[in-house]
Amino acid sequence: PSSLPEKKVIFKGLTVNKEDMNKLMLTPLIHYPLQGGSALITFEEAKVAQRIIEMREHTVELSCGELEELDHCRVRVQAVPVEIPLPSALEMRLSQSSRSILLSDLPSLDISREALLDKLEIFFSKTKNGGSEVESREFLEDSDQVVLTFTQDGVAEPLIEREHIQVSIGTGEYKVKISPCMNGDISNLQLQPSCCPRTVLLLGIPDVLSEESMRDALEIHFQKASRGGGEVDALAYVPAGQTAVAVFVEDTG
């Protein structure tokens, strides 16, 4: 208010770089559908994959006793780039759960995770500990944090205000941190196609060999430098009439 006197202040706190704030780390886990008569081949080097795509059409020689009429035959396959949609812009709306708490700094005990969840549920179900009946409990994926959800409103907030609590487990007392449980909803997501640098999609593969034999024939062909290939890191083949889903993860190499 303008009626208050002006007062000069000195800031003695810590500052951080703006770039370090409000960051969201995304771990790619892309599910890519594959139709029958196709294969995905990943090379150790991106330049090999690019060369295979530029050549476009490839004649693969098959030599196998499974072919009754011909000992040798050739099939033509098409090599195309693999394009997958990746987020280019992401907006999320965060909200605090009214019935859930987040537990961290949990003790490392010689018991299973399920047994630890039982102990936590028993402790936080008691009103003398500030809790109430627990509706659900779960470990967050890839972390040592637990989310407890109560059946009633008004239980989570007083616990969160305490920030820490001494939890009795067996004969021990352990200091556990209590934090708000935040839920995130995606309000806006924009995608743009991204080309896999080391992976090639092969199309038009006829169903003339068994799955294992065709996979071997493709790998033999595309690892030969004389045919534009190179060292193969992985190969997945889907015979005609079948479907599959390939999972792409972050390329840390």
TrEMBL record:
Localization of this protein: Cytoplasm; Nucleus; Secreted
BP term (GO), one: innate immune response
Annotated keywords: Cytoplasm, Immunity, Innate immunity, Nucleus, Secreted
Annotated Pfam families: NID
Domain of life: Eukaryota
Stretches assigned to the NID domain: 39-136, 146-233
GO cellular component: cytoplasm; extracellular space; nucleus
Family named by the database record: Belongs to the NMI family.
Name of the protein: IN35 protein
Species of the source: Cinclus mexicanus (American dipper)
